[in-house]
Design goal:
Organism: Streptomyces spectabilis
Number of strands: 15
Helix content: under 10%
CATH architecture of one domain: Sandwich
Mean pLDDT: 94
Radius of gyration: 15 Å
Largest sheet: 8 strands, antiparallel
Oligomer: single chain
Protein name: DUF1349 domain-containing protein
Amino acid sequence: MNAKDTGSLALPELPFLLRPYGPDGDWTYEDGVLTGWAGPRQDRFVPPTGEALDPASDAPRLLGAPEGDFQLIARVTVGFAAAFDAGVLYLHAGEREWAKLCFERSPDLPTICTVVTRGRSDDANAFVVDGSSAWLRISRTGAAFAFHASTDGAHWTFVRIFQLGDADAAAAALVGFLAQSPQGEGCVVTFDHIEFRPNWPKGLRDGS
């Protein structure tokens, strides 16, 4: 399946449709693997240091609207070629209210990174990963969101918890997938072992 052909993608793992946003990511899904492509210098980041923001700056996103509490999980594999190439689980609550959980080359080593944008973006590294794949998880309960990452998909490391927008914005937030290549000539990102759970994790810091 290709998002360009249908305008949306229905993944059997997800109870909601996904729609493409931003530049064309050539999103395809086959045999449990979602693939997207970030083009040269494509990113979604609002500098906190006050530099002018190019309003055309964006990265390919594939997003949908889950209802209620949830966990979205995927193993992310990135064809790292340049600094800050990344595969991302992405959360969108408004034009300047969004967040990224990234598996990123930052700048020399594969690293779990997060960005939360409230007008302007913050940026924080969590831990280094040995290899080209990592597991990412976004969770929501009420107006709260949590980010976790894992090297094996079984034991989860807590990365951060936060709110994004007001309660109405959080309830209507879009969630899904993003590919980026801020300084490079582009990269391919794949997402597999995609899973949706209609609940909040039992414990944020106990590895579950």
